[in-house]
Amino acid sequence: MNATYAKYEFLRLFRNKRFFIFSIGIPLALFLTIGGANKDQTLDQGAFNISFLLYYMVGMAGYGATIAALAGGARIAAERSVGWNRQLRLTPLTPRNYFQVKVLTGYFMAMLSIALVYAAGVALGVRIHPIGDWFQMTGLMLVALIPFLAMGIVFGHLLTVDSIGPALGGSSALFGFLGGQWTPLPATGALHFIAECIPSYWMTQASHVGIGGAGWPAKGWLVVGIWAVAMTVVAVQVYRRDTRRV
Prior knowledge:
The chain has helices at residues 3-14, 17-37, 52-70, 72-81, 84-88, 95-124, 132-144, 146-158, 161-178, 190-195, 199-205, 218-244, and strands spanning 42-44, 49-51.
């Protein structure tokens, strides 16, 4: 990994006030407002019940992490608009280093969002035992985030600065809704079938670990794996196409 480029990316990240507002501030505010008002409620998930507070904590942590992962695309689009990407290609920076740094900063942003929502959840009364379940739950969420990190890179290399904002906002909202991050989905029906086919749904399902449940079934791993491979392949292709234009 190129340490100089990584340092530059992190400096840009901490100077980006919009990131802190949208990927941290909004999910945290929603959780404190809605989760706090319904913290004594219980959700009927069919075979078991789950605390609304726990479910919504994971939902908002996942929503913020999704925004953070996709936000990398906005930085890429800005770089392309001023010709910075062309300058980078004249340096010894390899495509592998480029993708490594983008993924690293995306994960850092996502972890920051998750950590703050977790802290708010604990403050409101969320308790998960043993502590290893916290790590398992978080690990599943981070795995489900891989397709969105690649998707952010795709958007950044395909869209302009003017168009990427609505695209990122719309896609994060759509995946958040279909994934049950905003509100629990029906246990059956067409909407449930669609939800099971997207990674944000399985990100939210990580909340089951918090009540002693198992991790994802084989279907969850398959869905997330297919999305991750597909989006990574597309990200590599759009990057190469963008490179050939220079």
